[in-house]
Each structure stands twice: as structure tokens, then as C-alpha cells.
Amino acid sequence: MPSNQNMQGGKTFGLLKAQQRERLEEINKEFMEDQKYRDEEDLPEKLDSFKNKYAEFDLNDQGEIDMMGMKRMMEKLGVPKTHLEMKKMISEVTGGVSDTINYRDFVKMMLGKRSAVLKLVMIFEDKANGAGAKPSGPSNGPPPKRDISSLP
Q1: What's the pTM value of the predicted model, to 2 decimals?
Q2: Cα torsion 87, 88, 89, 95: sign
């Protein structure tokens, strides 16, 4: 917490978010300098996108996405999962060594060649948003009105 005791909740939250983004930016710089990722197409743009997406779901600003953050992410993406499914997804990303996903693991998953379930969901969501597409079906609002004046 900041040392200034006069800060109100909103100001403190904004400061925490700014500090979090600075930490994530430092990690992004490490990936930019890593030889393993030098040939990655559009790496700066991808890392910036990953940073924003990760910060959105790091609910406690501790630099980790926990079970509640994962639950919120899956619901927001329109693919709610059970507790066991989310545990499996986190384990898949972390190699089973943690109950939370840190930013480094998140970026490695997104840039990696393996097709983790979470990665596939994130990519699908980005493509759907980028194309401006919405899923078809009843969730798009009420059905169109029919002209019933010609019915007997």
C-alpha cells in the first residue's frame, strides 16, 4: 500500500493498477530481449495485448490470476467452466506447480507452440472481437418481429 494515508479507495486502486502494469511491462522487456522470442511476429503488439488482458483478470493485483480471476475470465469470454475444469486449465499452464497463473507463465503459454485450452479460448475471443463478430443465436437479443396482419 502507498505510504500516503490520505488516499481514497479509487486513488489507491489506480495507483496499484499503475504499479502492476509497470511490473508487467518489465517482464515484457525480458521477453523482448530473449533470443527465443526474437523471431516472433508482432511481438511488441502481442505483449502489450497480453499485458492488458492479464491485468484485467488479476483481481487482487498480486501478479497472479487465481481461481476467481479464472472464473471471471471464462464467464466474460462466454465459456463458463466448472471448478475442476479451471483447476485443470491452471495446472496445464503452470505445469502443475501452482494454483495461480503468473504473468510469465501466461506469456509463455500464449507465445508457445502447445495448444493449452486457455490459450485456445483467448485466441478465439481475440479473433471474434477483432472481426467484430458476435455469436449467433438467442443471446443476440429478441427475435425479429413477424408481420401477423396477413395471418387468418
Answers
A1: 0.68
A2: positive
